[in-house]
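hey so i finally got around to running the thing on that chain from the lab meeting. sorry it took forever, my laptop kept dying and i had to restart like 3 times. anyway pasting the input first so we r on the same page abt which one it is
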Amino acid sequence: MWPHLLACALLLLPAQALAGAKEKLAALAPSGLVLVIDEKGNELVAQNADKPFVPASVAKIVTAWLALEVLGADYRFKTRFYLGSDRVLYIRGGGDPFLISEELAQLASALVAATGKQPLSGVVLDASYYPSGIRIPGIENTDEAYDALNSALAVNFNTIHAVRKGKTVRSAEEQTPITPLAISQFLARGAQGRGRISLTQNLAVGLQYAGELIAAFIERAGGSVKGKISTGAVPEGLEPVYVHHQSRPLSEILAGLLLGSNNYIANQVFLEIGGHRLGGPVSLEKSLQVADEMLVRHSLAGSIKLEEGSGISRGNRFTARGLAQLLRLFEPHAALLRSGNGAYFKTGTFSGVSTLAGYADTSKHGRVRFVIAHTSNAGAMRFRLLKVIRSEL
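ok and heres what got predicted. didnt touch it at all, straight out
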């Protein structure tokens, strides 16, 4: 009899521990959303798991998964360069989200090698891959870097990082030349001291800055631009003299995206999903169509609703069970997420919204998938909940 009673007691211990963990989580966030699923698909905790919530930047996990499925981990964005008989340089943007200064330095050296060091008589920027009417829900007309406009041809995430002292402006980055437009824009909108402003006022401003910065890097590489910078189309029949392939594969771009939570990069990648699958020019509608098809294929259409790819729109709506199912699909790529304290995770933050999702190693149930969301500005609470999950489960 005693062995039988002992066996029953041992069976009750895990159930009691699980009940204790649920009580602790409920006490910390009684109205919060918490879902924890083990490797076998067992739900260890399910609190408000079917209640739709605003994911904020946790939505970037979905964008990363879609991009890997549609584009592939080794995909590289392209920017094409054409040289007219009058030595006008035409640049056709391909939506590369990582045309940062270090990339432009590589690009300019290869471009000068391809075109020669004779002066260019002008630069024409072709951004037709992105129609001018593209607007991302949630992006506002502010100077904040997270509100930078998406574009077929933009540099340094369509932002300017500079230092202002009175009426003097210099670059905040040794690797980035200062340009006339950067100076005028920062004088008009930048605060005193070091800061970063987004080029959100007008797409033409972002294009002009891209042209000026590329021209500055051409000068650094031993070439020169003598004519004006303008916008227009690449002439029919002209073949590229140089095609620049982004040095970073998509997997590396996504790792940077998930670590830095950059909205501009997220929606550049999201727009490319539709452009790649359905052809250019890109559109939000094309990308949402492809996303919906992928979600339907995995029975997620009712539980993951996207309006855009960064999470900046409050119109995005997920359920915890839907996101947990997508986390199962994304698990081979878990290492792309931020890591720490025995977990791989992505945060999301809005006014009144704090979210956290990913994978955690627990003391009793091994690796679990988890989704946490609560409607408050106490961002630290989500990590307190994660600590309970890791230590009590």
